[in-house]
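note to self: dont lose this again. the chain is below, predicted strucutre after it. 160 aa total, dont forget to put it in the shared folder this time
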Amino acid sequence: MPQQETTPRLAGYLDKQQPDLYATLTHYSQQLVDEADRLGIPRRTLELINYLCSQINGCAFCLDLHHRRALKYGETEQRLSLVAVYREVRLFEAPEVVAMKIAEQITRMSNSRPSAELFAEARQHYSDEQISVICMAAIGINAFNRLSILSEHPVRQAKQ
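---
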């Protein structure tokens, strides 16, 4: 039986070891939200992107965080429980589905690249400017997922 690793991968949290770099990442995230608001991309859609990418990457800390944020922006428990199978259920609106498809493809780029057909589908619902923000949202959450996974950020018990 393989021995289980007992020491942390890193000596501490990356965000604490490199606070200026982390501040840059959080500034990126805030600018992204501001731009999404300006362009009319719902916060709920951004949180679906964050949630899906965090599921794919297996980032417990970000899943917990974006679950709570999604609920804050009007998402339902039922839809969140089905994000992993968003293509198989009819609970998501077409613009949300295409945003999640783009986010999924960006997250899985080592396997396949987002296709021209996917971007053509996206243009049925979004402007090129909005699509670029959706792409940047997926890029951003992937960075945060990797930071949290490497740092082993703990998920704390929610206050009741």
